[in-house]
Amino acid sequence: MSVSEIQQQFPAFEKELVQDIESNSEIRSFTAGEQLMRTGQYFKSTMLIVEGLVKVYREDDQGNEFFMYYLQPGQACALSMVCAVKQETSQIMAKAVKDTEVISIPLSYMDEWMSKYKSWYHFVLETYRSRFEELLETIDHIAFQAMDERLEFYLKKHVQTLGSKTIPLSHQEIADELNSSREVISRLLKKMEQMGKVKLQRNSIEVIKLN
CB neighbours (10 Å) of residue 2? Predict the structure, then answer.
């Protein structure tokens, strides 16, 4: 990836940092559905998203998923950064929702750049802060809201992240991510359709109007 392409996705980075990234990183590509991170994996590098969309989630012993947040171009995964620095195994999963391209940066450079470049230092801190706030928001909805409110919040987040009012997910996929049953999600979606909030389609949901 060229200097100009890196600067386009990460405009706050200093010129010298961008040159360092170009010289000391590699580009990795993942097809839609491919895993980027797995539970129990050790990290030797951190990844910056330059194209596509990545879903970060946890998985229990029965294979049930708990959706945490999405990563978009210009972002990085804070939890992978923490695991990399502390040399601990991952407690999360991540997979490409769309065909995705990332910049893979070896751990040694990530540490070095924290003291060498102010823009990298602030980028890492902002990554920690923003992901932590997203997690708090998700936890708040789980702890304090009923399933119909959680579902509406979930749909809003997808519209915002995908930049589209059509969400390409089945009722079962939504149920898995919200740790619910397909029957419950289908019933709530049908109720939302009757209220004019959504329009149900085969393996997708079109959002009409949410509060």
Answer: 9
Fold of 3-143: Jelly Rolls (2.60.120)
For residue 154, what are its two tokens? 């979930």
For 146-207, CATH number? 1.10.10.10
Q: What is the DSSP letter of 202?
A: T
pTM, two decimal places:
0.75
User: Would you call 84 helix, strand, or coil by DSSP?
Assistant: helix
CA distance 175 to 182: 5
* Dist CA 36 CA 93 (whole Å): 8
- What tens digit of pLDDT does each residue of 161-204 get? 888 899 998 999 898 888 888 999 999 999 999 999 999 988 89
The amino acid at residue 4 is: S
Q: Looking at the DSSP assignment, which residues form a beta bridge with residue 70?
A: 55
Torsion angle defined by CA atoms of residues 143, 145, 148 and 150, in that order, rounded to the nearest 10 degrees: -60
Contacts (Cβ under 8 Å, ≥6 apart) of 178:
67, 147, 150, 151, 154, 185
136-167 pLDDT, tens digit per residue, is 877 777 767 788 988 998 899 888 888 889 99
